[in-house]
Amino acid sequence: MTTPNVNLLIMAIIQEQDLDTATTMLQEIGATLTYLSSSGGFLGRRNATLLIGLPAEKEEDALIALHNACNQRIEYMTLPLEGSPMSMPAPVPVTVGGATVFALPVERFEQI
Questions:
Q1: Whole-prediction pTM value?
Q2: Residue 80 — pLDDT band, cuts 50, 70, 90?
Q3: Distance in angstroms (rounded) separating the CA atoms of residues 67 and 32
Q4: Quick one: CA dihedral 82, 84, 89, 93, positive or negative?
Q5: Which residues is 99 bridged to in the sheet?
Q6: Is the Cβ–Cβ distance between 65 and 26 less than 8 Å?
Protein backbone atom coordinates (compact mmCIF):
# COMPACT_ATOMS: atom_id res chain seq x y z
CA MET A 1 0.00 0.00 0.00
CA THR A 2 1.59 3.28 -1.07
CA THR A 3 1.00 6.16 1.30
CA PRO A 4 1.72 9.39 -0.57
CA ASN A 5 1.04 11.75 2.37
CA VAL A 6 3.98 10.46 4.46
CA ASN A 7 6.88 12.59 3.39
CA LEU A 8 9.11 12.94 6.41
CA LEU A 9 11.27 10.48 8.34
CA ILE A 10 12.30 11.53 11.81
CA MET A 11 15.02 9.50 13.47
CA ALA A 12 15.15 10.07 17.22
CA ILE A 13 17.65 8.51 19.60
CA ILE A 14 16.17 8.42 23.10
CA GLN A 15 16.84 6.65 26.38
CA GLU A 16 15.10 3.30 26.67
CA GLN A 17 13.30 4.41 29.85
CA ASP A 18 11.50 7.12 27.81
CA LEU A 19 10.40 4.69 25.08
CA ASP A 20 6.88 3.86 26.29
CA THR A 21 5.93 7.48 26.91
CA ALA A 22 7.41 8.66 23.61
CA THR A 23 5.73 5.97 21.49
CA THR A 24 2.35 6.59 23.15
CA MET A 25 2.58 10.34 22.55
CA LEU A 26 3.71 9.88 18.93
CA GLN A 27 0.93 7.38 18.19
CA GLU A 28 -1.60 9.89 19.56
CA ILE A 29 -0.63 12.35 16.80
CA GLY A 30 -0.95 9.62 14.16
CA ALA A 31 2.75 8.97 13.54
CA THR A 32 3.83 5.61 12.11
CA LEU A 33 6.89 4.37 13.99
CA THR A 34 9.29 1.54 14.55
CA TYR A 35 11.99 1.36 17.18
CA LEU A 36 15.40 -0.28 17.15
CA SER A 37 17.41 -1.10 20.25
CA SER A 38 20.71 0.77 20.37
CA SER A 39 23.34 1.78 22.89
CA GLY A 40 25.11 5.02 23.67
CA GLY A 41 28.77 5.45 22.87
CA PHE A 42 29.73 7.58 25.86
CA LEU A 43 28.03 5.81 28.77
CA GLY A 44 27.14 2.57 26.99
CA ARG A 45 23.55 2.86 28.17
CA ARG A 46 20.61 1.26 26.40
CA ASN A 47 18.87 3.58 23.98
CA ALA A 48 16.08 3.27 21.48
CA THR A 49 16.27 4.65 17.96
CA LEU A 50 12.82 5.61 16.72
CA LEU A 51 12.06 5.70 13.00
CA ILE A 52 9.01 7.94 12.68
CA GLY A 53 7.09 8.45 9.43
CA LEU A 54 4.64 11.32 9.19
CA PRO A 55 3.43 14.18 6.99
CA ALA A 56 5.67 17.24 7.05
CA GLU A 57 2.91 19.36 8.59
CA LYS A 58 3.04 17.15 11.73
CA GLU A 59 6.78 17.64 12.28
CA GLU A 60 6.27 20.28 14.98
CA ASP A 61 3.73 18.04 16.78
CA ALA A 62 6.25 15.18 16.78
CA LEU A 63 9.02 17.40 18.13
CA ILE A 64 6.75 18.65 20.91
CA ALA A 65 5.80 15.04 21.79
CA LEU A 66 9.47 14.02 21.94
CA HIS A 67 10.34 17.10 24.00
CA ASN A 68 7.60 16.29 26.51
CA ALA A 69 8.43 12.56 26.71
CA CYS A 70 12.23 12.67 26.77
CA ASN A 71 13.44 14.68 29.73
CA GLN A 72 17.05 15.32 30.62
CA ARG A 73 18.09 14.24 34.10
CA ILE A 74 21.22 14.07 36.22
CA GLU A 75 22.72 10.67 36.99
CA TYR A 76 25.92 9.92 38.83
CA MET A 77 28.73 7.92 37.29
CA THR A 78 31.56 6.62 39.47
CA LEU A 79 35.12 7.20 38.32
CA PRO A 80 38.31 6.30 40.21
CA LEU A 81 40.25 9.25 41.62
CA GLU A 82 43.51 9.74 39.75
CA GLY A 83 46.63 9.86 41.88
CA SER A 84 44.82 8.54 44.93
CA PRO A 85 46.57 5.75 46.87
CA MET A 86 43.18 4.07 47.32
CA SER A 87 41.00 3.44 44.31
CA MET A 88 37.86 4.93 45.84
CA PRO A 89 35.32 5.88 43.21
CA ALA A 90 34.18 9.49 43.06
CA PRO A 91 30.61 10.13 41.84
CA VAL A 92 30.49 12.53 38.90
CA PRO A 93 27.20 14.13 37.78
CA VAL A 94 26.35 13.44 34.14
CA THR A 95 23.37 14.88 32.24
CA VAL A 96 21.52 12.11 30.41
CA GLY A 97 18.25 11.87 28.54
CA GLY A 98 16.58 14.11 26.06
CA ALA A 99 16.53 13.15 22.41
CA THR A 100 18.81 13.51 19.41
CA VAL A 101 16.59 14.10 16.38
CA PHE A 102 17.21 14.00 12.63
CA ALA A 103 14.48 14.90 10.10
CA LEU A 104 14.83 13.64 6.52
CA PRO A 105 12.57 14.10 3.49
CA VAL A 106 11.09 10.86 2.11
CA GLU A 107 10.06 10.37 -1.52
CA ARG A 108 8.16 7.14 -0.98
CA PHE A 109 6.73 5.15 1.92
CA GLU A 110 5.13 1.69 1.70
CA GLN A 111 3.85 -0.81 4.23
CA ILE A 112 4.07 -4.30 2.77
A1: 0.76
A2: low
A3: 18
A4: negative
A5: 14
A6: yes
With beta carbons less than 8 A apart as the criterion, state whether 91 and 46 touch.
no
Nearest C-alpha neighbor of 51 from the set 68, 38, 64, 39:
38
Answer yes or no: are the C-beta atoms of 63 and 57 closer than 8 Å.
no
**pLDDT score for 2:** 52
Mean pLDDT (the chain) is: 84
Cα–Cα distance, 15 to 100 (Å, whole number): 10
Domains of the chain: 8-105 (3.30.70.120)
Rounded CA-CA distance 62/22 in Å is 10
Type of residue numbered 23: T
Write the DSSP symbol of residue 78: E
